[in-house]
């Protein structure tokens, strides 16, 4: 038996997702992204690029918001239709095409969300004060926001594919978010296994991209700023929180983006494998 | 709405004998089959030396309107669909109930290397004997394209065949058939072809519903309608927990194309397990033979031929009926083999058949329970499924909708499909005009107290079922076989044994 090609099936499922998402009021995801980013920008925006701590926590909050928005987009999208998937897989559906269509739809949705987040951040977060590496600080921050949101959306797809029901997926979601936040390396200094695991989290690489682009290592801490005001020339004024992940280098920025992309692709592949395993008898 | 079946076509036998041109013999009641010789002649004769003088017999059963074949313990025996009939008693083998498309062969054990005098007979009921089989002289052709397309050398009318379905290529070592990425695949002697396969003289090639036989330099083929053929269920055992728990045991029955079959059984008797085994989802020890091909051995290529209409809807609620069917058509029927117009025509035809044309632009969420079930049936009809298994298609419906739902399924079965239904309200499925049950056959599963597994307690017509269980209504069968703690009479073991003593399913 030979069914329709991967490309045709992807096209069919993408059209279907687009159609159904519009009927299911997909615009609410855009409103949701706008509200979240507005809250974040209003709270952290005024202190951005003033001190290391405020900029670092500002970017961390922005990265967390992107991850939260992305996961929320897709966490229920696959698990709510496991029975449908089972029936369609039997009829010749290709799992890779099904997942690809979902990823493509998330690319569209996340693009719209990234534009909204970016515009709001531009208003309140003074990206113009940030240095740049490749193009302009606006483009670089936009790419990071987009990659983070999309990566999180595909992470949500993966969790949804593995979870049996929407309830399970929603129960697992906070744990996934906590792992992302804890392993980002911003809240705690990581070492050992935790540090190794942090390399597969979007939050770490998202922060690395923001940090490298904004040259976070060279923004002084509040303590340094106070020390600098003292008339004591003998003090070391280097940033004690400096990290290799925030190096203001093109290679560092590209590596961070590449890692986000690789994690996204990996999660999409896991999605396909998980669905195939779930339906191996069909 | 009510479907009136066309009169049954006479059974025919396509006889391919090495020493004569292939010919079609109309079967008229009981007929003997043997070699042409100087003594008393059989009614169907062949010249092949490996056929006995009185090799076998075709027997007609008036009550069932079915033909059976018995091999008279001949020297070389008879193979039906690749399996040799085994001696049953001194007179001959056990009678084999013939279904449309069954292939009978008198040949040597290795069917891949046939005896030069081997004989092939194809039993046929779905086609007119005078126009059903065609001969194609392959002459010196090297490549013979087969399919529905206008430019193919052998052009088929079978809708389930792709436009350029396969190529038969002459090579230095003989003929080789290539599956041209077809929708429904190619099988040679009942085995699915993965890419290509050698074809020997007398081999039988199946392309969708079409049967082709290579006979020397001649290709013999039919042009059938979309037909299910025969479904043979042979489940020796179905176990779980690494073989520790048996769920089903000794379930053997045959279903013919056009049959509407009811599956009855108490809770835990194994109805769902049986359905899963037939679907191939939960493989059992045994065989599921569909149209001569073993589902378990050719699962990948055959799984789409058996469709399940589940009890609970598996459709996206926020999509319209037409879009749902159009998408499934786009998934199942590839662009290369089916044009957009053909797909649209098929969807329109199915919606008309199922009675949902007026609902085509409605969202599925806006439909009633009965309408949603009709869409679920239509969804399965889009492909070329041969067997439909419906898990409680009448659940949650009122009496009128239940009857209507069953009438639709009955009509689908009439179109040469096999429809099997699990229902707890089987007595609602009656013909309004005659008061007769719409079902052709009833499968009754009962849980044996000996091994706690589901066994076959009956297989036959609804009238025979009522007689077997001594009840007036089909649903009363449940009362007889259900255990006392479920409000039944707990006579499952008795009926299992009674059915066994009566010879089981023929």
Question: Can you tell me about this structure?
Answer:
Chain A has 11 helices and no strands. Helices cover 70% and strands 0% of the residues of chain A. Chain A has one domain. Chain B has 506 residues and is α+β, with helices and mostly antiparallel strands. Chain B has 3 domains: 131 residues, Tumour Suppressor Smad4 (Sandwich), CATH 2.60.200.20; 95 residues, Tumour Suppressor Smad4 (Sandwich); 272 residues, P-loop containing nucleotide triphosphate hydrolases (Rossmann fold, 3-Layer(aba) Sandwich). In chain B, 18% of the residues lie in helices and 31% in strands. The N terminus of chain B is likely disordered. Chains A and B meet through helix 1 and helix 4 of A and helix 2 and helix 3 of B.
What features would you highlight for this structure?
heterodimer, A: 282 residues, mainly alpha, 11 helices, 70% helix, B: 506 residues, alpha+beta, Tumour Suppressor Smad4, Rossmann fold, 3 domains, six-stranded antiparallel sheet, 31% strand, globular, disordered N terminus
- Work out the number of β strands of chain B: 32
Assign the CATH class of the largest domain in chain B.
Alpha Beta
Low-confidence stretches of chain A: none
Largest sheet of chain A: none
Write the layout of secondary structure elements.
The complex is a heterodimer of chains A (282) and B (506).
Chain A: H1 6-23, H2 27-44, H3 52-74, H4 82-90, H5 95-125, H6 137-162, H7 166-182, H8 192-198, H9 202-213, H10 222-229, H11 250-278
Helix pairs in contact in A: 1-5, 2-3, 2-5, 3-5, 3-6, 3-7, 3-9, 5-6, 5-11, 6-7, 6-9, 6-11, 9-11
Chain B: E1 12-16, E2 23-26, E3 31-35, E4 44-46, E5 56-61, E6 66-71, E7 79-80, E8 83-84, E9 96-97, E10 103-106, E11 119-124, E12 133-137, E13 143-147, E14 154-155, E15 166-171, E16 174-179, E17 186-188, E18 191-192, E19 196-199, E20 204-207, E21 210-215, E22 218-222, E23 230-240, E24 245-256, E25 260-265, H1 271-279, E26 285-290, E27 293-294, H2 299-302, E28 306-309, H3 321-332, H4 340-354, H5 369-381, E29 387-391, H6 399-414, E30 418-422, E31 441-447, E32 454-460, H7 462-469, H8 476-481, H9 492-501
Parallel strand pairs in B: 3-4, 13-14, 25-30, 25-31, 28-29, 29-30
Antiparallel strand pairs in B: 1-2, 1-11, 3-5, 5-6, 6-9, 7-8, 7-10, 10-11, 12-22, 13-15, 15-16, 16-19, 17-18, 17-20, 20-21, 21-22, 23-24, 23-26, 26-27, 31-32
